[in-house]
Amino acid sequence: MEPRIVFGPDTSDQTGQLASEYGSERAFLVTDSGIVTSGHVERVEASLGASGFQVRRFEGVNENPTSRDVKACRRALGDWDASIIIGLGGGSSLDVAKGCNFLLAGGGGMEDYRGRDKAKGTLLPMIALPTTAGTGSEVQSYALIEQEGTHQKMACGDPQAIPKVAILDPTLTVTQPRFVTACTGLDALAHAVETAVTTGRTPASSEHSRQAFKRIPTNLTRVLAEPTDLDARGQMMLAAADAGRAIEASMLGAAHAMANPLTAHHAITHGQAVAMMLASVVRYNACEPDIATIYAELAREAQLCEESSTDAEGVSCMAAKIEELIELAGFEGKLSAIGVSREELGTLAAESAEQWTAGFNPRKMTIAAFGELLEATF
Predict the structure, then answer these.
(1) Res 150: pLDDT
(2) CA–CA gap between residue 132 and residue 172 (Å, rounded)
(3) Alpha carbon 369 to chain centroid distance?
(4) What number is the average pLDDT over the span 26-41?
């Protein structure tokens, strides 16, 4: 079941009206302190108040949230009888809101919900208001939470956790720092590219991947050049949501598997980490002719190359565009430039092979294959 999408500038002002269709009286709003400072929380709370809601707020979400963050959110809710949960912020806020919902219904800790179909009891309805265009969490049934202490990512999912409504209001993304715009945009790019070729892809997920990728190269370039371009920001939000819906069926691949250890060991933002590895993964996977064809079709539709180009030329254009966007974002493209040592590559390769997304990559991944990819990006 996909969420209802409400799209357009200022649609966040409809939050209270939309919430009243799913709950009454009490809304629990999950966000972070930066979103409070931006004024977005006040705006959403005003909309909820106008529709008769009392609001309790948790604003303690951290980047790359851990199981401890989710427990803190659950403690903040306490025994207050909320009827609906509102997630407002980036993917971290939306994931913590989902995590809190799991704990509210079933107790325990996030480790108890790792995997698929793990909800215990009935989850509250949720409305998601992303303030970034990247993770696609607003349309997904999974919360991605780090295990406290180990920094290993836990994918905790259940169909009940899919938000009832995703409000895509591009005015909420204008206040992002350029760094956040770049990281989240590159994350959406990686989602579109990886979901298009995974072993779990379906006709429906492939269409979502295609629609996402068509929008991203041009519109990410536009928003990096002109942050107030609401049309481009809106297109990026739609692209992120499409890519997020693709993840539901197709999952992700080797680039995401390598990104998680990089983030754990070097505190590299997820979007930057996954983008750094993406071009190498594209070239690696393109050794499979059917995968090369998919990449090339995406490149042609996004007008990265001529319609008459060969599959090899299309793959080359896609990889080159990924590297161009990384440079445009102002990020380093080589692991050595961000403090990774060659001696670490073996450890990173071994940890990458343990990531759940590695199993969905279209070309079989081994520790040796991950080592080859890390060396290529070193």
Answers:
(1) 72
(2) 8
(3) 25
(4) 95
Q: Which amino acid is at 145?
A: I
Please name every residue paired with 250 in a beta bridge, in sequence order, or none if there are none.
Answer: none
Which domains does the chain possess? Answer: 4-172 (3.40.50.1970), 178-377 (1.20.1090.10)
- Tokens 């890390």 belong to 374
Reported confidence tier of residue 122, pLDDT bands at 50, 70, 90: very high
- Identify whether the C-beta of residue 233 lies closer than 8 Å to the C-beta of residue 133: yes
H helices of the chain, in order, are 15-19, 33-38, 40-50, 67-77, 91-106, 178-195, 203-225, 230-250, 254-266, 270-285, 289-301, 311-329, 345-353, 367-377
CA atoms in the 13 A half-sphere facing the CB of 102: 33
Q: What is the dihedral of CA 179, 66, 142, 207, to 10 degrees?
A: 20
CA distance 211 to 298: 9
* Full-model pTM: 0.94
Q: What residues have CB less than 8 Å from 162, skipping those under 6 apart? A: 1, 2, 3, 139, 140, 141
Confidence of residue 332 (pLDDT cuts 50, 70, 90): confident
Q: Which residue has tokens 């590559």?
A: 345
Q: What whole-number distance in Å separates Cα of residue 104 and Cα of residue 120?
A: 9
